[in-house]
Specification:
about 10% strand, single chain, mainly alpha, 4 strands, two-stranded antiparallel ribbon, two-stranded antiparallel sheet, about 35% helix
Length: about 200
């Protein structure tokens, strides 16, 4: 029966990863593709315990669950983009109750702001440029800073790109597997982002 459990979890892992990649492909904004490439699943047996592990770039969980902004009023016409979701990364078994940027303070008055450099590849891929009031084209560093400040202030809307296919695949587990084993969901953040090979 353990063999059947491993097979069922492997299938669930494949379906979840395929669904998550498909959801990322549907995203209208261009991305570097790093998150999609990083998505992996692996079934690991430790004695009588069998774990289904998923691996992805860390920012994937924030994209899935969304992040509450620290203060939307920091940016003109700002609005709160973070909201409650059923993301597997938040809630009772998730990493946090919710993800949120912290209050003002610190350098540039924005403690906890994501590093502007994190948006560099995104602005390059999308070929973004912005002009200042005097008509000069802003440097990419300035543009990255403005985007980072906007994300800090308003947060990130949840996409559930991973959670939706995960829940669907979980519901597709055979009844005999669910009834025979104590299956539960628990989210753990690992420092090492590379799954080891068996």
């Amino acid at each position: 029966m353990l063999k059947e459990l491993k097979k069922a979890l492997q299938k669930m892992g494949r379906e979840t990863v395929e669904g998550a990649r498909l959801n990322l492909n549907k995203d209208k904004s261009k991305s570097s593709g790093a998150l999609k490439k990083s998505l992996k699943s692996k079934v690991v047996q430790r004695g009588d315990e069998v774990d289904l592990e998923f691996w992805m770039e860390e920012y994937g969980m924030f994209l899935d669950a969304g992040v509450y902004g620290a203060d939307p009023s920091i940016v003109k016409k700002g609005k709160q983009k973070g909201k409650e979701t059923d993301s597997v990364f938040t809630g009772n078994n998730g990493i946090a109750e919710r993800f949120s940027y912290k209050s003002k303070g610190g350098k540039f008055g924005l403690k906890g702001m994501p590093p502007p450099a994190a948006f560099d590849s995104w602005t390059k891929v999308n070929n973004l440029s912005l002009k200042s009031k005097n008509g000069k084209v802003m440097t990419r560093q300035t543009l990255n800073f403005l985007i980072a400040r906007g994300v800090f202030a308003q947060g990130i809307s949840p996409t559930l790109f991973f959670t939706t296919p995960f829940i669907k695949a979980f519901k597709n587990l055979p009844d005999e597997i669910v009834n025979a084993f104590d299956i539960y969901v628990n989210t753990v953040l690992e420092e090492d982002q590379n799954p080891t090979k068996n």
